[in-house]
């Protein structure tokens, strides 16, 4: 009798395990193989938990393992998981330049179209107490410790020991000075900058104040000047933009900074090497008109 009771109990357990296994198989066959939405247990998971609490340890293990063989969980069909931390794309600032050189009769002599690079503190090597570079300018503006002042565009032929070459010469930063022939285009309403020029620089208060582009995600600088009579032929081998900043503790508005700030730091620029996507340096002569535009955008 005891033996028969044991056989009856085992038969009852076996039948119950088979029923649960069949139920799991049905759910896996007709359900979405990808499971439920994130955060909500799937039906198959709930059934597996029920089997684990209603059967013997061996049967529970079988029920729990069953979902692992579904199509979505099979090793060959598993989707690649995104890297931890999500996308790692960087934020870039683009400086697009155009330079048009026209003859006195209006005909186009040269057209240049190219990109520049951001001047960074490491590339300039400025270790002073008030370093100025493109990356520092952006950081302090975003932080709110500085206010933007006037812009300046420099077209020059720097005399440096080793002139960069190739299609990626790097940004031209901090190349202004008495050892170069320069055309300096100051922001037109920057009275402090336009009060006088130094050295061999040819200064022109012709740079329009910056404006937002129509798409509202860019800033445009534009200027035009005529090469003065008596100026010798000048080959422009480097271009650079400079930006002046004021501390918020000194001025309260950008207009006040523009009218008073005279110290500017290199923001962006490039050397013109004539290799790859970098155009050849243009030579300008007296009487020619030079139109320059720089458009900054972000992505």
Shape: globular
**SSE topology string:** HHHEEEHHEEEEEEEHEEE
Largest beta sheet: strand ordering = 3-11-10-4-5-6
**What is the makeup of the main sheet?**
6 strands, mixed
Number of domains: 2
Low-confidence stretches: 1-78
Taking Cα atoms only, what radius of gyration do you get, to the nearest Å?
35 Å
Distance N terminus to C terminus? Answer: 82 Å
Q: What is the chains' assembly state?
A: single chain
User: What is the tally of beta strands?
Assistant: 13
Structural class: alpha+beta
> What is the helix content?
10-25%
- Roughly what is the average pLDDT, rounded to an integer? 73
Count up the helices: 6
Tell me the strand percentage band. 25-35%
Question: Nutshell version of this structure?
Answer:
With 299 residues, the chain is an alpha+beta fold.
Question: Could you characterize what this model shows?
Answer:
This protein has 2 domains: 2-77, no CATH class; 93-298, no CATH class. Helix 1 (2-30) packs antiparallel against helix 2 and helix 2 runs antiparallel to helix 3 (57-65). The chain has helices at residues 2-30, 43-54, 57-65, 121-124, 134-143, 254-260; strands at residues 93-102, 108-115, 117-118, 146-158, 180-187, 202-207, 211-212, 218-226, 234-235, 238-247, 264-271, 283-284, 289-298. The relative contact order is 0.17. With 299 residues, it is of the alpha+beta class. The chain contains 6 helices and 13 strands. The protein has a 6-stranded mixed sheet with strand order 3-11-10-4-5-6. The radius of gyration is 35 Å and the shape is globular. Residues 1-78 have low confidence and may be disordered.
């Amino acid at each position: 009798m005891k033996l028969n009771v044991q056989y009856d109990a085992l038969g009852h357990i076996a039948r119950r395990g088979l029923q649960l296994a069949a139920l799991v198989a049905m759910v896996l066959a007709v359900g979405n193989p990808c499971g439920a939405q994130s955060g909500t247990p799937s039906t198959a998971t709930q059934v597996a938990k029920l089997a684990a609490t209603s059967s013997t340890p061996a049967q529970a293990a079988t029920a729990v393992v069953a979902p692992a063989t579904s199509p979505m969980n099979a090793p060959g069909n598993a989707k690649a998981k995104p890297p931890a931390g999500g996308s790692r794309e960087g934020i870039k600032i683009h400086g697009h330049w155009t330079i048009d050189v026209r003859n006195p009769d209006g005909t186009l002599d040269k057209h240049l179209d190219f990109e520049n690079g951001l001047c960074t503190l490491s590339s300039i090597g400025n270790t002073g107490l008030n370093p100025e570079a493109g990356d520092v300018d952006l950081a302090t503006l975003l932080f709110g410790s500085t206010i933007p002042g006037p812009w300046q565009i420099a077209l020059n032929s720097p005399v440096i020991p080793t002139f960069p070459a190739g299609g990626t010469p790097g940004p031209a930063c901090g190349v202004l000075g008495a050892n170069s022939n320069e055309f300096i285009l100051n922001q037109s309403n920057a009275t402090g900058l336009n009060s006088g020029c130094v050295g061999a620089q040819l200064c022109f208060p012709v740079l329009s104040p910056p404006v937002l582009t129509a798409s509202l995600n860019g800033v445009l600088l534009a200027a035009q000047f005529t090469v003065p009579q008596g100026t010798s032929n000048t080959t422009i081998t480097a271009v650079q933009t400079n930006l002046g900043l004021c501390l918020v503790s000194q001025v309260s508005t950008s207009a006040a900074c523009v009218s008073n700030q005279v110290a500017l730091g290199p923001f962006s620029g490039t050397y013109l090497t004539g290799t790859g996507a970098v155009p050849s340096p243009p030579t300008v002569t007296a009487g020619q008109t030079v139109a320059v535009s720089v458009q900054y955008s972000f992505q």
